[in-house]
Amino acid sequence: MRGDTLHHFDLKLCDYVIGNVTQYFDDREFADWIRTSIPSSLASHLDACHAECESPKALLGEDELHALETANECPPPELDRKWLPYDALHRRYVSTLREVHEELCPRAAQDWAEECSASAKRLSARRLSLHDGIMIAGEWLRRLRQLLLAMRATELAAAPLGTFPTPLHPTPMRDTPQSTEANEITDLFLIRIEILRQIMRDHPQGRRAKPESLIKAAGIGNQSARNVLRWLADRGEYEGFTRARPARFMEGRRNEI
Fold first, then answer.
1. CA distances from 234 to 38, 89, 201, 203 (A)
2. 10 Å Cβ neighbour count for 66?
């Protein structure tokens, strides 16, 4: 299946993140801190992984990565933990290059190789904090999923962008805007969602940033970007609009992407 090799590496990177968190779960105080700082279904998944219980494979999606990043952002000093690098896993990205080369293009494979090498180097830094390790691994995962979306392998991409289960989305449904029924438009819309999410993460005002500043940074057409921001606003992920949504949206009338 198209995207299988990338998907396998995706699962391994998610295990890498989970392992770095749960390696400290024998410390009850740390484990309790994490459990109370993240959604209960994600906490249950971490506990199952720590206990090595048999459970369905699940990716860490955008919501899970954000929860783990936030939980480890400002812990009490005594609970501040370090990231443990896994160099052998870092090098496994080479197994994905042929797929990217064949399904996309040689330039995409070259760029992906450079990005993987840079991510691996950052994750191997001395005394990297657990929070920073999760953040870097999350960026690596997001880039990988952009490739899956470009291949239209959305069934292998983590929910809610794709349809592969995550702890917070165990039975995901395809939730795309009404104006994106065609697969070609849907995939493009999903890529734009990810681009604007990343820009919001980096913006000083985050989800409250003005639409104009996000649109300029994204380099996406004004109306297309606003449609994405409206979609994010409907789901509570964006709060930068100051005007009420036009009545046509509330009435279900279509709009151009």
1. 23, 38, 18, 20
2. 17
Cα atoms found within 13 Å of the Cα of residue 16, Cβ hemisphere only: 26
pTM of the full predicted structure?
Answer: 0.69
The DSSP code for 93 is: G
Calculate the dihedral angle through the C-alpha atoms of 105, 108, 110, 116, rounding to the nearest 10 degrees. -140
Cα–Cα dist 186/154, whole Å = 10
Query: 10 Å Cβ neighbour count for 248?
Result: 10
Highest mean pLDDT among 83-92, 169-178, 185-194, 218-227: 83-92
Both tokens of 1, joined, read 């299946």
- In whole angstroms, give the CA distance from residue 32 to residue 223: 45
- Average pLDDT for 24-35: 95
Tell me the CA distances in angstroms from 132 to 76, 186, 200, one per residue in order.
16, 32, 18
Tens of pLDDT, residues 141-193: 999 998 998 888 989 999 877 889 999 988 865 444 433 333 444 556 777 88
| Distance in angstroms (rounded) separating the CA atoms of residues 180 and 119 | 33
